[in-house]
Amino acid sequence: MSNVVLYTKAYCPFCQRAKALLDKKEVTYTEFDIGVQPELRDEMLTRANGAHTVPQIFIGEHHVGGCDDMMALEASGELNTLLNA
């Protein structure tokens, strides 16, 4: 299973939705809350090529994007492929 990393904020409904999908799939992920650890915001911006909204989701070295991007991968059946790479 690929390493999954999410940059989130606690109050973000899109972050909650993304985590709920991963939890439903029983995927273990690492979460960095940039509200609690603001020093990680620059790391997120660099990894996400300047994307500043949360969540920012990474599966392995692949930058998925945000919640809507991950949901689109799920709808197309591509999310499982990335997760199992």
TrEMBL record:
InterPro entries: GLR_AS (IPR011767), Glutaredoxin (IPR002109), Glutaredoxin_subgr (IPR014025), GRX_bact (IPR011900), Thioredoxin-like_sf (IPR036249). One of its GO terms (cellular component) is cytoplasm. Pfam families: Glutaredoxin. Keywords: Cytoplasm, Disulfide bond, Electron transport, Redox-active center, Transport. It comes from the Bacteria. GO terms for biological process: cell redox homeostasis; cellular response to oxidative stress. The keyword Disulfide bond applies. Residues 4-64 form the Glutaredoxin domain. GO terms for molecular function: glutathione disulfide oxidoreductase activity. PANTHER family: GLUTAREDOXIN 2 (PTHR45694), GLUTAREDOXIN-1-RELATED (PTHR45694:SF18). Has a glutathione-disulfide oxidoreductase activity in the presence of NADPH and glutathione reductase. Reduces low molecular weight disulfides and proteins. Belongs to the glutaredoxin family. This is Glutaredoxin. It comes from Pseudoalteromonas ruthenica. The gene is grxC.
